[in-house]
Design a protein that fits this description.
The chain has about 300 residues and is of the alpha+beta class. About 50% of the residues lie in helices and about 20% in strands. The protein folds into three domains: about 60 residues, Orthogonal Bundle (Helicase, Ruva Protein, domain 3), CATH 1.10.8.10; about 120 residues, Tetrahydropterin Synthase, Chain A (2-Layer Sandwich); about 80 residues, no CATH class. Helix 2 crosses helix 3.
């Protein structure tokens, strides 16, 4: 019987991204054979995927893909950042973002879509990947922008771990009759701005009235504490609403690349330079793990849980 040493465990972990204890057990069961251990982990993972699905997955990647007529974002979560560097995980994420270009913004539809030229769908392939890697992996959400006005699609990935994969993803559609190369260059810069400034809407006209109403009520209550008369309070609130729009609407935000001009001004200057029209049609962005509650544990607890799994 082969000796299962630390070097073998490390080698198997590097190939699969599976946990140390899972790797050790696999090597013991297969007499130290790496390839058989990979198969053992996959089989074990497929049968144990339900157990792994209970674990919180808040890491992973945002994947972005664009084509001539669409742009897609997908968030795929894992339990640890280590998995985001696993080549099998990265390949899966890239493939899923390309499939999402055709499946739309419905996550259930994406899960049921055929995975490449295999006989499996995306969800079945995901289950196999969980078995291979040994961590819970969640296909959390997706969104698609589709061409309806001869749009030019741009994208940006922040915190990139591989081409098209990172921690923040942005897709953007622009309608313009200008030079495509220059519009694409601007589109990437604008996508970078969106990643940094995280606007909620293109302009004040696109902001949900319920959001404005809520903000106005909060500002009114704050202004009342000043003891000023109602007519002054009304002017104070409207001024603060304008400031609110400058923070949350893309066209009113300050362009991050110069720190001075509004985005709307930058667009006007570009239109004059290229003698073209240019309209921002839509944008979407995902921030990895946004909204996922993660239980904080001390290091000793995490080690104990790893040993017991």
């Amino acid at each position: 019987m082969s000796v299962v040493n630390a070097a073998l465990v490390k080698q198997l972990r590097g190939k699969t991204g599976a946990g140390m204890m899972d790797c050790k057990n696999a090597l013991v069961e297969t007499n130290g054979n790496i390839e058989e251990s990979i198969d053992w982990l996959r089989k074990k993972g497929i049968s144990g995927a339900e157990k792994k699905s209970a674990r919180v997955a808040a890491d992973g990647v945002i994947a972005v893909a664009t084509s001539n007529d669409s742009g897609a974002l997908v968030e795929i979560n894992s339990e640890t950042d280590f998995v985001s560097r696993n080549l099998d995980f990265q390949l899966f994420a890239k493939n899923i973002s390309n499939i999402a270009l055709k499946s739309g913004s419905d996550i259930d539809k994406l899960k049921k879509a055929q995975y490449l030229d295999t006989s499996k769908n995306v969800e079945e392939t995901l289950t196999e990947l969980i078995g291979l890697i040994g961590e819970n992996i969640v296909l959390r959400r997706t969104v698609l922008l589709k061409n309806s006005n001869n749009s030019i699609f741009s994208s940006y990935i922040h915190g990139q771990v591989s081409n098209g994969l990172g921690k923040i993803g942005v897709i953007l559609s622009i309608e313009s009759n200008g030079d495509i190369v220059k519009i694409n260059e601007f589109g990437k810069k604008l996508a970078m701005h969106i990643a940094a400034s995280k606007p909620l809407a293109i302009s004040s006209n696109n902001v949900d009235p319920a959001v404005i109403d809520r903000e106005r009520k909060i500002l009114i209550e704050q202004a009342k504490d000043s003891g000023k008369p109602d007519n002054i309070i009304e002017k104070m609130v409207e001024g603060r609403i304008s400031k609110f729009f400058s923070e949350i609407t893309l066209l009113d935000q300050i362009w991050v690349l110069d720190g001075e001009s509004k985005v709307s001004k930058i667009i006007e200057l570009l239109k004059k330079e290229l003698l073209c029209n240019l309209t921002i049609i839509d944008f979407k962005y995902f921030v990895l793990g946004d909204g996922i509650e993660v239980e904080k544990k001390d290091f000793a607890t995490e080690v104990a849980e790893q040993i017991n799994n």
